[in-house]
Amino acid sequence: MEATPQRRERRARNIAVVVLAACAPIVLLVFARLGAPADGTATFPSAPPWGDGVVLADVTSQPGDLRPGDRVVAVDGVALRTWVADPPATAFRVGQVLRYQVIRDGQPRTVEVVLMPYPLVRKVVDNAALHPLLIALLAVAGFVFLRRPDDPAARALLAVAALVPLGLTAFPYSTQVIDVVTGRLWPLVVADTASLLMWGAVLHFTFVFPRPSGLVARHRRLAAAVAYLLPAVLYLANLARTLPGATGALERTGLLVTISVPAANVIPFAAAAVMVLSYRAARDRATRQRLAWVFAAFGFGLACYLGLGRLPEWLNGTPLVPWAWQTLFFLPVPLALGAAVLRYRLFDLEIFLRRSLIYGALTGTLILIYFGAAAAFGALLGTPVQVGPLLAGGIVIGLVLSLRERLRRMVIRLIFGDRDDPDEVVRQLSQRLEATASADSILHNVAQTLARALRLPYVSVELSGTEPRTASHGRPAGNPVTVQLTHRGEHVGQLVLDSGPIREPFGPDDRRLLDGLARQVGVTAHNLLLTVRLQRSLERVVAAREEERRRLRRDIHDGLGPVMASGGMRLELARALLRTDPDAAQAVLADLATTQQQALTDLRRLVEGLRPPVLDQLGLVGAVRQRADRFTGLAVTVEAAADLEPLPAAVEVAAYHIVSEALTNVVRHAGAHACAVRLWRDEGLRVEVSDDGVGLAESYRAGTGLLSIRERAAELGGEADAAPRAQGGTQIRARIPLPRA
């Protein structure tokens, strides 16, 4: 990990990059447009191409008689092709009057034009709807880049966001006729070159989003080179096709400065194809969701563009929403791109997107048929098409279809419950379980919640184990589906869902619902089994403790007690016999010594029953090694951390018995040749016993040995489990908490 100063320096550089990306378009726009006088016109070299003149695409802030669609062929009597070939030596100034010779409706006209300062403020106001999209794109891209500066998708997105506004001096702050006259075309060249690079960045983004894969992952630099060189190749190919046939300097200049148009005609389709292929090739659900977000955002903008722009214009000649404001329809796109790159999962979009596309296509088809029929009858009868009634009818069709779908969902929910919304079923189940205080009522609440949420006549939850438990709600109806419940590979029970003879049975489409329920109920069943096992373990501990006390009392009362009492009496007898019969006293003392030796043996047996003495003699590691040496025919290695001991007495006893039980299981069931025992500290005492035996069967269920190991660990608040090893065999791992110092 980098040191803190290095991270700060890198973050400062990243912030500087974002600030530069935001400021560069503004600086270019101001410098390019405020540095020369303006005539209030706008022309594009590609629509239509420059030939013997330039066609005006727009006219703003011009008191003269210029109109959009006029073709300017000369200025002050000099043809534009001559101006381009030989620009004026002296600069024009604000207030100067020029005479534009134009062709309008096939007739030549002369229009006086007064040069003025560039109307930047008015242009900004006229294009107010464009700037929120640019700001949102740059803000989202900058935020994503600062969060993930090493992500190639974040870098490509920032490049797109920075290059889009750099193209503003090509559109909408476009080239003017006066720029063509003076040869001041560098703002157009810079802007169109930025647009060319922008299309390369778009293609690069689709290559690396949501993540590089396949050839792109193996050849990242080559993929980036292809992405950025392809627009340039398209530009050069277009020049090679059109430039040889150009006549005059004006047409050649128009072709040379038409830099990004060939890429704009090809790259969007290529990028869309790459995104679709990425979606089809995606293996995991999260990747498909991220791509679905982008598709949904673009689909929304495109649907609004077609439905509120192109279609009304085709029918009535005027879009319902002005073209300048239709950029707002694409505001969700930057947000979707940012969320997708940052891997945010807001909610499952695939089902929503699929159904929206189906019903959206159905609605759109019906509306198009309706509009087409109305337009055809209008043309047949010679009456103009009124877009208002048509739009009202289209809205009615859409509302009817929407209400139909809503009604369908209400009926389905009434009959089938929340089967179509697995997340809602799991959420209801989680809330009900959180509100359940008693372990005895958990299974019943699970069955009841699922029966109500899914409108099922019968639900049953059955737990496996040494003490099977079952809870049900309702009555069996003869159409059950059984879902096996597992947790970490261990079978913990089964869930029975009965849809009955009337309702639709569970099918393949319900697999996601059943899998989600299996996970949630499986965890609940596992926890309940642990609770039951812990309770039984505690009961056994208490019973064993009381039984041990009873045994100690019996052994002391019936064994050591009489021996000690008779020993005192024999000592008195021996003392009395010393004066009168020394030989008899000697015999009494010898018998007393034998009795006391037996009593000492019994006492040692009692002590060994309380705690293995080998732990006090050799410690845990030595005791484990001694225990391992007793298993002949099995090569056992014992590894212990240097800082393992000392350990609390209860922990030592539990660990010793866990290892002993695990080794016994290996010998009895594993068929292993070698076994390894590891002991170390890591948030408690860790015990690991691994063997190279046959491993666990698929239908494996915990037996008495593993249950005993789990109980030993659970008595001290720990846990234990068994799992197959990747290289074969079985591994038993246990964790026993250690008291804090």
CA radius of gyration: 43 Å
**Which residues sit in consecutive blocks of at least 5 with pLDDT less than 50?**
344-359
Name of the CATH architecture of the domain at 616-736: 2-Layer Sandwich
User: Cα distance, first to last residue?
Assistant: 32 Å
Biggest β-sheet strands, sense, barrel: 5 strands, antiparallel
Number of helices: 22
CATH superfamily placement of the domain at 616-736: Histidine kinase-like ATPase, C-terminal domain
**Structural class estimated from helices and strands:** alpha+beta
Average predicted local confidence, pLDDT: 77
Helix content: 55-70%
**Total DSSP E strands:** 16
Query: Could you say what the CATH topology of the domain at 616-736 is called?
Result: Heat Shock Protein 90
Topology:
Layout: H1 4-33, E1 41-42, E2 54-55, E3 58-59, E4 71-75, E5 78-79, H2 80-85, E6 97-104, E7 107-114, H3 120-126, H4 130-147, H5 152-166, H6 177-182, H7 186-208, H8 214-218, H9 220-242, H10 249-257, H11 261-281, H12 285-316, H13 332-341, H14 350-381, H15 387-416, H16 422-434, H17 442-454, E8 458-463, E9 469-474, E10 480-487, E11 490-498, H18 511-580, H19 582-610, H20 613-629, E12 635-640, H21 649-670, E13 674-681, E14 685-691, H22 704-715, E15 719-724, E16 730-736
Helix pairs in contact: 1-4, 1-5, 4-5, 4-13, 5-7, 7-9, 7-11, 9-11, 11-12, 12-13, 12-14, 14-15, 16-17, 16-18, 18-19, 18-22, 20-21, 21-22
Question: What key phrases describe this protein's structure?
Answer:
five-stranded mixed beta sheet, Pdz3 Domain, elongated, Single alpha-helices involved in coiled-coils or other helix-helix interfaces, alpha+beta, 22 helices, 741 residues, Heat Shock Protein 90, 16 strands
